[in-house]
Amino acid sequence: MASYILRRILLIVPTLLGILVVNFVLTQFVPGGPIEQVIANVQGRGDVFGGFAGGQGGDAASSEMLGPGDSQYPGAQGLPPEFIEQLEREFGFDKPPLERFLSMVWDYARFDFGESYFRSIEVTELVLEKMPVSISLGLWSTLIAYLVSIPLGIRKAVNDGTSFDTWTSAVVIVAYAIPGFLFAILLLVLFAGGSYFQIFPLRGLTSDNFESLSLLGKIADYFWHIALPVTASTIAAFATLTLLTKNSFLDEIKKQYVITARAKGLSERRVLYGHVFRNAMLIIIAGFPAVFIGVFFSGSLIIETIFSLDGLGRLGFEAAVQRDYPVIFGTLYLFGLIGLLVNIVSDLMYVLVDPRIDFEKREG
């Protein structure tokens, strides 16, 4: 097992390098960049997309300062060449692309992600500042999904084909079919002061007076704020895990060892939880890290935006809009590294749950 883990760890290096290469090459061809973003802000267009209308941001008089071919940046007409050169030096675009890429790889190997172009803060500090919000959503959503899905899936397997199984399957399928963002908006309309009830807060993870509350008050305030976002992000994972649990139990119940255990006179409860449970739950328990990362990454942007939560999802979206390359590359690098490490942890979970599994023999 040690050699298998070592090989998996060594594969992380070329995988991360591939992620950086692909994204670095893409940014060389995507229209707009941090310099165009600054030019758009200086000329009052607000964002980088205003600069691609043929350079209409400057008037005819000011455009005489630069000829039509004097700048590679759309919309830069009317700005002194020295200003553009200073921006290139500050952002590092005065160097060839290969040199910039190699420098970035060396820095990232030392976990030096640089400083955000537009926030004047280290990328690492920025990620650590936003991470608690996204971890809260991912962790609680995954835990609740497991706590609900496993008992429900087991009961559905035991009562397969009954009316209980039928109507709960209908509920699960409907829940899976509802997009997370639509369910989040529905929760806001119903319970956050939209058109009906104002039971939960509309935005944020804590109240303004959070620091002045007692310990129990802080805990209650935290769960009060996170109730709707967690519910919205749990819905899809809940449906998938329920059906997965049911199908896993049905597969195990039909096996010969279950028939033998029943023939020996063991109670149904002993057969179900003493023999079937461990084998049926192998794939579900071992997949916990992957499910958490899936919820953590996939639903964070939409949920955080709808509920005005300042987490990693919104951070990545805003960085992409602003062309804040250090934040974009830094978060991609960290997310890729976390995802790869979680895959290794998932394999270790399989071995922990069922020691009979040996990945080295399977590879051989």
From TrEMBL:
InterPro entries cross-referenced by the UniProt entry: MetI-like (IPR000515), MetI-like_sf (IPR035906)
GO cellular component: plasma membrane
GO BP terms in the entry: microcin transport; transmembrane transport
Keyword check for Acetylation: no
Tree of life domain: Bacteria
Bilayer topology annotation: Multi-pass membrane protein
Chief localisation class: membrane
Keywords recorded for this protein, A-Z: Cell inner membrane, Cell membrane, Membrane, Transmembrane, Transmembrane helix, Transport
Cellular compartments annotated: Cell inner membrane; Cell membrane
Positions of the ABC transmembrane type-1 domain: 131-350
Membrane-crossing segments per the record: 9-30, 133-154, 166-192, 222-245, 280-307, 327-353
Pfam families: BPD_transp_1
UniProt family annotation: Belongs to the binding-protein-dependent transport system permease family.
Name recorded for this polypeptide: Inner membrane ABC transporter permease protein YejB
Gene name as annotated: yejB
